[in-house]
Long-chain acyl-CoA synthetase
Amino acid sequence: MSGANLALILEARAADRGRAAGLHAADGRSWTFDRIDLLAGGVARALAAEGIGPGDRVALCLANGPEIVFFLFGAWKLGAVPVTISSLYNAAELAESVAKTDPKLLLVDAGRTDVLAGLDTATPAVRSVGPAGEPGTPTSGVRPLEWGEEARVAAVEVEEDRESCILFTGGTTGRPKAVSVTHGGTFGSLRRLARVSTGAAEQGTAAADAVPNLIALPLFHSGGQHSLLFAYFVGRGAVVWERFGVDRLAGLMERFAFDNFFFLPTMVYDIVHSGRDLPFAGVKHVLVAGQAISWTLRRDFELRYGVPILVNYGSTESGHIAGWNGKDMKAGRWKPGSAGRVYPGVELEIRDDEGNALPAGAEGEIVVRSELTKGYVDDAEASAALVRDGWVHTGDVGHVDEDGVLWLSGRKRDMIKCGGFQVWPEEIEDALREHPLVRDVRVLGRPHDRLGEIPVALVVRDGGEEVPDGELADALVAFARERLAHFKAPRRVEFVPELERSATGKVSRASVPVPGKDPQA
């Protein structure tokens, strides 16, 4: 096998441990690596029958579950590009995502064709996806994709800089953006993490009978997708579920006896505050990424379960940059509150506003040389700001100390990270401004023990004084939830007489007044 196609990872596992279980569903179903490869081949045949070939984009708006694994690898086998769209999106958000990425084919769950209502007549071909092997029935005029057959299809060769996937993430400014990642850049990120985690950058280093990894994050999320690829890269199976839940987690822990986890801080919060004790015996460590975890939450978890929490810093655009591993902990190198040691092989600079590299200890923007991303497919200006001469400008601010440890101090951008999801204030503001009783609004992030940050809306009322503040606040939250995915809606609304403006008429988020401490959302 040659080339950089991500489908080669699955094909390598089908070759060296084909009879081992490579995929498990929460409902008890499982598939060997060999059968996963055959089903992915069947998907490739089905997509090819729809006219999909190398470089064509295929949008997947599917509920999280094991079936997405077959569709990801099936598309990659053809050299096609999956566009993974959140199944939490409503019709308007799906339509916007399709408009940004221009896929040739859109796949939606057979039971959720209502989400297509926002698409205009110039949309791509649309097919519904039902259970494999069952006769498809047209739903709301949408023809089903017949995809359940098995076929041995070899991955086409692709160049390292070819687009492998489009994920929705935050850029440096504006609304959510569609980021293009590459096959070769993803392979490089996987090798880097494998070297740090296992000491070797080669594939298939895990024992054939190693316990599987739980893919705790959804597969439309960069964290979930990369977790799946990493498990297969090192040779482990994967357990995929619909969504996180403490009771669901407990059952899976008893069934599989996991030895490690990758969680968001929100998940750790729910585990710590659960009334039940989970079977963490045998778990070596928990890796946390996606947002900062508070020291008190980390302490409460480690004291309760005796399992160390390791952190990882990176992004969809830059890949894995820094973190701690078990060897660091044993060697006493860990520094509380830091983002971790910069990983070997990572070229990282701290730069000032003029683009000059700064010495150790100086604070500035974190900039990383990376071949992972081709930029944003929907915003040339933001892409030019993101990637300059091969360097990714993260928008995060921090410094590196004399020991090569990275410390974060803030973000240049206004993006809010709520429970690991990226939320843009402008998108919430646009929705709230449609309400007749909102004259002006500004959304900002506030610290929150469980979610990291929550979006809070400061609203200047426009009449309707007979409506009490509390009643209107509840109505505005409901109004936003009707128009946005639930994680984007403001968790709190506060009313102010006016918003402070600069001489040019702009409202600075940094100048917005900060009321008292938020209650738990």
